[in-house]
SsuA/THI5-like domain-containing protein (Orrella marina), 297 residues
Amino acid sequence: MKIVLAENFRTVFYTPFYAAYAKGEFARLGVDVSFVESPTPGSAIELMYQGKVDVVWGGPLRAIKLRDDQAPVDKALLAFCEVVGKDPFFLVTSIPETPANHFALSDLMTARLAVVSEVPTPWLCLQEDIRDAGLNPSDIDIVSDKTMAQNLEAVLDGSVAYAQLFEPYVSLAVQRGARIVYKSADRGMTAYTTFLSTASSIERNREAFEHMATAIENVRDWINHAEPSEIVQQVKPFYPHIDTDVLETCIARYQKLGLWTCQRKISEDGFYQLRQSMKNGSFINSLPQYDQCVIAI
């Protein structure tokens, strides 16, 4: 069974996908998976519409958004198999910690915050945390047009007080003297990354997709409990741009947060947390239901 899988983009929190491939789990179950890189985050979906790929990975946000937009049946997406069940983003700062300045989200109200521009989910979810703290995200002075690489430099040189980053930028920031002040995963379940496909592709490839979900479940215990150095040995070829010691630190940090749920069923609590963030952030107008956006595989 041949499957063309489009990457949303290549980042550390997607490690379980690469681990399942590198450890031969897809192949062992009879699925010949080939990866196609996306030119930009989200553009993989267009490749699927064109028939060039069978499945993508990414956030259920896209399935929810298309349902809210009342996309035609052939354009609607269905999510299956949760791989990342918590938010992988952090807030970092170069402001030294003292007994008098222990971080709280209210500190953002009087500071400059650089938020993620590449994809919408991180800032939508952080805004919901801010609202849950009784604060108004619209009152924050944000920088929303820079890349995470640029925001890393900005938080280090003091151009911004706080930056919203994922790994490896977090570990690189800490290496250079910054500190983590907020872990978005601490809010609990947020359905963050799944497989996504169209109904017609699922109908054609259902057996292969079932095996791919099994492969992901098969690496769950290993990805969460193996030594980071052992995991890096398997997945390092997918991350040639990240030094080995940094990659080990990234993986250890994500393991500690319990980020990688790697389960066939997408968390309903996580789905509704994401949907609420989208609705309150004015990203959607309606409240699409779980069964409209998720399919059991």
Observations:
- The mean pLDDT is 96.
